[in-house]
Amino acid sequence: MSGYCDSAPGHPVHAPYHDLEYGFPVDDDRQLFERLVLEINQAGLSWLTILNKREGFRRAYHDFDIARVAAYGEADVARLLSDPGIVRNRLKVAAAVHNAGVALDLVARHGSLAAWLDAEAARCGVDKAAWVRLFRRTFRFTGGEIVGEFLMSTGYLPGAHRPDCPVHARILACDPAWRRALPAPIP
User: Fold this and answer.
1) What is the pLDDT of residues 9-24, one digit of tens each?
2) 174 CB contacts (<8 Å, ≥6 apart)?
3) Which are the contacts of 158, defined by CB distance < 8 A and separation ≥ 6?
4) Is residue 125 in some structural domain?
5) Residue 172 included in any domain
6) Which domain holds residue 37?
7) What does the pLDDT look like over 103-112, one tens digit per residue?
8) Residue range 152-181: average pLDDT?
9) CB-CB contact of 154 with 29 (8 Å)
10) What amino acid positions are annotated as catalytic residues?
């Protein structure tokens, strides 16, 4: 996504996401769940479309309250499928509801979704293929691109910004999980 560092600055929608969110470590479970849902919904669409619909997603999915989304029934699914403020795709909506249930279970077992991701980061490190296998076993609608973007956007995989992008230095100062997972240089 190094091209993002060229195209996002100055853009009214992309710039705030690029400068303040993309690649920074996230430890808030609602924000992690939001990013997962947004990345799933981006499949086949532009990121600009998703960012433009972000507030609609927040409203429709009750500010990404994981427990509330996990409890959605058929009436909620019907409501989501008729909401023009989000992506109205039955598979993506079903994945969001299912994945909320999975996330709720992970929170119950690990204390938080972030704690589960941190534990897995110690195991998977920066091996994208290992992460993709894990996500495919754990969640629905999580192919390689979705998983990669989710993990880059939340600080678990490197590559969100070019090393010469000013945002990259700010991310390094936050000690993202991917940096801690890199092997120590040999003296």
Assistant:
1) 999 999 999 999 999 9
2) 24, 25, 155
3) 126, 152, 176, 178, 179
4) yes
5) no
6) 27-158
7) 999 999 999 9
8) 96
9) no
10) 17, 39, 47
